[in-house]
Write the structure tokens for this entry.
Amino acid sequence: MDVQISTCVSDLKRGRGELLVVIVDDELNFLSPKSTFYSEAKKILIKAKEKKLPEEEYISGSNFGINFERVCFSPLRLQAYQDKSDQLRTCVARAVDFARKRHFRKVSFLLETKEASKEYKKLVDGAVLGGYEFTSFKKSDYAKKLIVELMLPASENLKVRKLAKEWEQVCDSANLARDLINQPGSAMTPGHLTGYARQIALKYGLEFHSLQFGELQKKGYVGLVSVGKGSENHPFLFSIVYRGTSSKKIDTILIGKGITFDTGGISLKPWDHMWEMKGDMSGAACVIHVMDAIAKLKPKKNIAIVVPAAENRPSSRAYLPGDILRYRNGKTVEIHSTDAEGRLVLADAFIYAYERFQPKVMVDVATLTGACARALGQDYTGLMANDKKLAQSIIEKGYDNGEKIWELALPIEYEEDIVSPIADIKNVGGALAGAQTAGLFLKHFVPESVNWAHLDIAGTFFYERKRKYFFQPGATGVMVRTLTDWVMHS
């Protein structure tokens, strides 16, 4: 379903439609004290606080003398989440779901105060992400389009209209990332992913550069070559550059892990849930669609993305536990598990990114470790960084956009866990602190002059069931909104 955002002045005499949603927070901040709905909202809030109201209340619009068929009073405290931002996004997603199941053409949200209008981003999040469907292999049950109308104070209408439409584009990019991640691994090989990224670059007139298998071998990108050689679908390394200024300097590089399917290689994964490994390229999908959003918003910055794309399969050609890789920068790595492949390809991407662009700031996004998912669950992305200011700036943007981030330390004491007796380092540590030892491995490939942050999205990239405002299970497109906002405003 295509959810489109519109705005208008909150004039109930002129407004009309099938559904008007009145959001009821505990302070009634969404309504003017003189509102037509203030008294009713107050009664409904009391019922919700006393737990006498199990769900939203729907009342005929004729009761209020307005030209809306139904008025939905939606107390935020009815949502299961403690975070008010999540409650608001979920409230909007529930209203959108109610409307689309009844094939309504439009759902309107009443924002009568200046304070309420400031929440436009959360409403757009809930509407666009909540209304998402993956329909490549299944017909939609809903109409093709739903208009989500924000009814605003006259003083806020034009300003919010511009900002809401911009943020709608960012959410659309996040949904495109979800489409990519939800594709079967057979339909999204390294070659397909590279071709998709090339089309994004062509669409916006951006610089695109890629290296194929032979070039990767020749130039010594041993991580990608080793991980990818077990598959008939050869690996690629590609970059896209957006230039918003005349300067040749690149402000920030985003790097996304692009393992299009991960069997674990010779260190084969268990069969159950292996199907989720079609999403092991979620980091790549994220940075590609951050670039998609940036190209639409046109900031005055120069941004590059780099993606190492490979398929990790077992075969007679696959790399082996016990192999030693000598990287282009001279670093040697002993392989203890072929299922710890993400860090191997990211190391090549770090080397390529620095040699080609000499960035000051580098951020990578990867479904890197089950250890991070076990530690932080499905609501928090893990972050490790060599710069506190950079880490905090990303964490703050994550919280602003409903994508919570928890910083994990990179203790020097854990370095001994990845020391190899026959190489510089090995690609896995011990049974403990797996997320941090993976981060410490990556840090070996970060030049000292670069401020770097690593985002481990292993727990947050995918939901098996409806959760919060993600009404369709599957890919979440996590970090597209956060990193777009961060790039635009950092």
Notes: The mean pLDDT is 97.
